[in-house]
């Protein structure tokens, strides 16, 4: 019997299941068994994770060379796609171990093609964003809105399924229903799968109490039109004072104060009623602000990280304040004398 037909020893996986990070599409049991099964006769084909650091470093260096020459590739996304899939297979506990460097890899891969119309609706590219949201994103809703603003995955059912699933997990049933209907309206593909999952969602939503399915804010808020050019509402010409006007006489009737004769300009109120209302999920333009970049995990956590500084001249506080109260009285037994 060949190696490809050997049965998988699930006893090995049973002892390692706590160290394996689940994936949306599942994992290959055979590859996991090979990864966690040491074989002295075939150390390279069936390595042990504890002994494969050098092999992983060499493979990572090969991918980095491909990334360095990615401008000459016919399919640049394929390089990152193979790189990410290899990392997920080589490091089953990718989220919990910094050795995998999966967070940095996903940030590099996703940011490289944000403005690429070629990969905007490529399932491989959208799956990288899904991995990033599920494993590392600290603000999933903002990340989904970022994808919507840039039109990433707008024609793929996977985007609407993942966003609606996250909203459902947050008990935002009305917003999840809105996302499903938006995907069906956009004819996202594959449409048959999207319709099937929407029916399953409707069945689950029908079992919820009416209070939990109340209307909420839009799941994908529309892009508000930019305000008009800022003008000074108080820059309205005031009527000049008449130099021949009679001066006010205090206490005399018939004389009004010149301040009462001045015409005050009303505050100019901006109205965008004539502006065109953008459609829901309208793509961000090149001049849009706030959605040009989603940032990185290190940038969002920089307030919680202390910058390293030299220890020269630093003093460490040791001990605490001496108690100022009375000392504890020690009992002495004088009856034994």
UniProtKB/TrEMBL annotation:
UniProt-listed GO biological process terms: meiotic sister chromatid cohesion, centromeric; mitotic spindle assembly checkpoint signaling
SMART domains noted in UniProt: Mad3_BUB1_I (SM00777)
GO molecular function, one term: protein kinase activity
Residue ranges occupied by any BUB1 N-terminal domain in the UniProt entry: 63-222
Cited InterPro entries: Bub1/Mad3, Mad3/Bub1_I
Region (Disordered): 17-60, 274-337
Protein name, per record: Mitotic spindle checkpoint component mad3
Native source organism of the sequence: Ceratocystis fimbriata CBS 114723
Taxonomic lineage from the root: Eukaryota, Fungi, Dikarya, Ascomycota, Pezizomycotina
